[in-house]
C-alpha cells in the first residue's frame, strides 16, 4: 500500500559517476572541436591536431598512472607470446646450430648453451625494466644515447670484427656483441623524452623536429658506417613511428621519410655489389648460383616442409645447405621442421604481439608510455617482417635477426629488456 505525503527535505546528491569524474578541462581535451570562421566555413582540425588532442588526455591522466592496477588480459597475452617465442627460439637454435657447433670443434649443445645463458641474462634485464618506473628513463636518455653512440664507434677500431660483410660487432675476449641493438633502444628512449618534454611545441620544428632528425640521422649514419643497412631501416622505422605518435605534423614526417628514402637509394648506388644484393630478390631463380643462393636454398627447404613439416631435428637446411640457418635464416628451419602450420603460428604470434603493442600504446596511462610502447612495437614488427620477407624471397636479405628467436646474445638480451619495458606499460593500462 502506497502513501502519498509531503517530502520535508530532498536527499543530497551523491558523487559523480566514474565516467564523469574527469575534470571539465580534461573532457574538453578529449573532444574534437569544430570552429566556424567569420566567413561561415567549418574549420576541420587537421590529422596532426586530432592526434595531439587524443594524446593530450595522457598528460591529464599522468597523476593517476602511478596507481597500481591488476594485470589485464593484454598484459598476460603479451607475456605469454614473448615467453612462447623465446622458448621456440631456444628449441630451434638447438636444432639449427647442432651441426655448426660440432663442425667448430664443440659439442652439439655449445651454441645452444650460449643462447640459453643469454636468455637468462635477458630475463634478468627484462625483470629490471619491468620493475623500474618507465618515467625514470627520462634521467637516462642522454647518457644512454651517448653510451650507445660510443659503442657503435668501437667496430671501427681493431676490436671490431666483420661478419658477412658488415663490421658491426665488437669482440672483447669471449664476449661478442652487436652495439646497434642498444642503439635502437636508446633512440626510442631519447625521442620519447625529447617529444614528451616539448609536447606543447610540436608545431615548432626547431624545438622538436630538428633535434629528433639530428639524433635519428646520426644513428643511421653510424649503422651505415658499419655496412648494416638493416639496422638503418629499423632505426628509421622507430623514429618515424615515434614522431607520428607524438603528433608531429604529417607533412613533416612525410618529407623526412622521403628524404630518408632518397638517401638510402643513393647509398645503395654507391656500390654495385651492394645494389646487386638488394635487387637479387627480384630474380631469385636467375641469381640462384650467386647472389640469391641462400634464399634459393631457403625456399627449397621451406617447400620440403610441406604442411606439417618433417619433424623436429629432421630438417636438412642446417646441414650447410642454408648458410646462417641458426641466426638470420632460422625461420627456414622452423618452416621445414614444422611446416606451414608452424610457420603460420610464428607469424601469427608476431602479428598478435604487434597488435597488442599498439593497443598498449593507445591505452597507455600517459604520453611517455604511449611513445615508448609504439616505438618498441614498431621495432619488433618491422624487423620480423623484414627478416621473414627476406627468408621467403619477397624482400631483400638485410642480415636482421628474427626478434626473440634467432641466435644472438646481444639481440636476445636487448629485445627481452624492451619486452619488459612494454610489459611495464601494459601493466598500467585500464
Helix count from the secondary structure assignment: 14
Question: Strand tally, please?
Answer: 5
Low-confidence spans: 18-22, 26-42, 62-67
- Tell me the count of domains: 1
> Which structural class should the secondary elements be placed in?
mainly alpha
Mean residue pLDDT: 84
Instruction: Give the terminus-to-terminus CA distance.
Output: 47 Å
Largest sheet: 3 strands, antiparallel
Which sequence of SSEs, written as H and E, runs from N to C?
HEEHHHHEEEHHHHHHHHH
C-alpha geometry: globular
Architecture overview:
With 430 residues, the protein is mostly helical. It has one domain (69-426). Helices cover 61% and strands 4% of the residues. A hairpin with a 5-residue loop joins strand 1 (35-36) and strand 2 (42-43). The longest helix has 34 residues, at 330-363. Mean pLDDT is 84; it is low at 18-22, 26-42 and 62-67.
What are the key terms here?
430 residues, mainly alpha, three-stranded antiparallel beta sheet, two-stranded antiparallel sheet, 14 helices
Task: Put the structure in a nutshell.
This protein is mostly helical and 430 residues long.
List the helices and strands and how they pair.
Layout: H1 24-30, E1 35-36, E2 42-43, H2 47-60, H3 73-103, H4 110-131, H5 137-153, E3 160-163, E4 166-172, E5 175-177, H6 180-197, H7 209-225, H8 229-246, H9 250-269, H10 272-279, H11 293-305, H12 330-363, H13 367-392, H14 409-426
Amino acid at each position: 500500500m502506497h502513501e502519498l505525503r509531503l517530502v520535508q527535505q530532498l536527499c543530497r546528491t551523491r558523487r559523480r559517476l566514474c565516467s564523469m569524474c574527469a575534470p571539465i578541462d580534461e573532457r574538453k581535451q578529449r573532444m574534437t572541436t569544430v570552429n566556424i570562421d567569420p566567413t561561415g566555413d567549418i574549420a576541420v582540425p587537421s590529422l596532426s591536431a586530432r592526434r595531439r588532442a587524443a594524446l593530450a588526455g595522457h598528460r591529464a591522466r599522468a597523476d593517476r598512472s602511478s596507481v597500481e592496477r591488476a594485470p589485464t588480459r593484454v598484459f598476460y597475452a603479451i607475456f605469454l607470446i614473448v615467453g612462447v617465442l623465446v622458448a621456440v627460439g631456444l628449441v630451434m637454435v638447438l636444432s639449427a646450430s647442432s651441426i655448426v657447433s660440432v663442425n667448430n670443434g664443440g659439442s652439439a649443445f655449445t651454441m645452444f648453451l650460449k643462447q640459453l645463458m643469454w636468455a637468462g641474462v635477458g630475463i634478468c634485464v627484462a625483470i629490471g625494466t619491468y620493475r623500474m618506473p618507465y618515467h625514470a628513463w627520462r634521467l637516462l636518455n642522454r647518457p644512454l644515447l651517448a653510451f650507445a653512440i660510443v659503442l657503435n664507434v668501437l667496430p671501427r677500431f681493431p676490436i671490431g670484427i666483420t661478419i658477412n660483410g658488415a663490421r658491426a660487432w665488437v669482440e672483447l675476449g669471449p664476449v661478442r656483441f652487436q652495439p646497434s641493438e642498444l642503439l635502437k633502444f636508446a633512440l626510442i628512449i631519447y625521442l620519447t623524452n625529447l617529444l614528451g618534454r616539448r609536447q606543447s611545441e610540436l608545431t615548432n620544428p626547431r624545438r622538436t623536429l630538428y633535434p629528433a632528425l639530428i639524433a635519428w640521422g646520426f644513428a643511421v649514419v653510424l649503422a651505415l658506417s658499419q655496412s648494416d643497412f638493416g639496422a638503418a631501416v629499423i632505426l628509421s622505422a622507430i623514429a618515424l613511428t615515434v614522431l607520428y605518435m607524438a603528433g608531429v605534423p604529417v607533412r613533416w614526417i612525410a618529407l623526412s621519410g622521403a628524404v630518408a628514402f632518397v638517401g638510402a637509394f643513393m647509398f645503395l648506388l654507391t656500390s654495385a655489389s651492394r645494389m646487386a644484393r638488394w635487387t637479387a630478390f627480384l630474380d631469385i631463380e636467375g641469381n640462384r648460383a650467386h647472389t640469391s643462393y641462400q634464399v634459393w636454398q631457403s625456399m627449397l627447404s621451406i617447400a620440403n616442409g610441406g604442411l606439417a613439416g618433417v619433424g623436429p631435428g629432421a630438417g636438412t637446411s642446417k646441414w650447410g645447405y642454408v648458410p646462417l640457418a641458426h641466426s638470420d635464416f632460422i625461420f627456414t628451419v622452423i618452416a621445414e621442421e614444422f611446416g606451414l602450420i608452424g610457420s603460420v603460428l610464428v607469424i601469427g604470434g608476431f602479428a598478435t604481439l604487434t597488435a597488442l603493442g599498439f593497443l598498449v600504446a593507445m591505452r597507455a596511462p600517459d604520453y611517455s608510455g604511449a611513445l615508448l610502447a609504439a616505438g618498441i612495437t614498431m621495432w619488433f614488427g618491422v624487423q620480423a617482417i623484414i627478416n621473414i620477407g627476406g627468408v621467403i624471397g619477397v624482400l631483400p636479405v638485410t642480415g636482421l635477426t628474427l626478434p626473440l628467436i634467432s641466435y644472438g646474445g646481444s639481440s636476445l638480451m636487448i629485445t627481452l629488456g624492451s619486452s619488459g619495458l612494454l610489459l611495464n606499460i601494459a601493466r598500467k593500462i585500464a
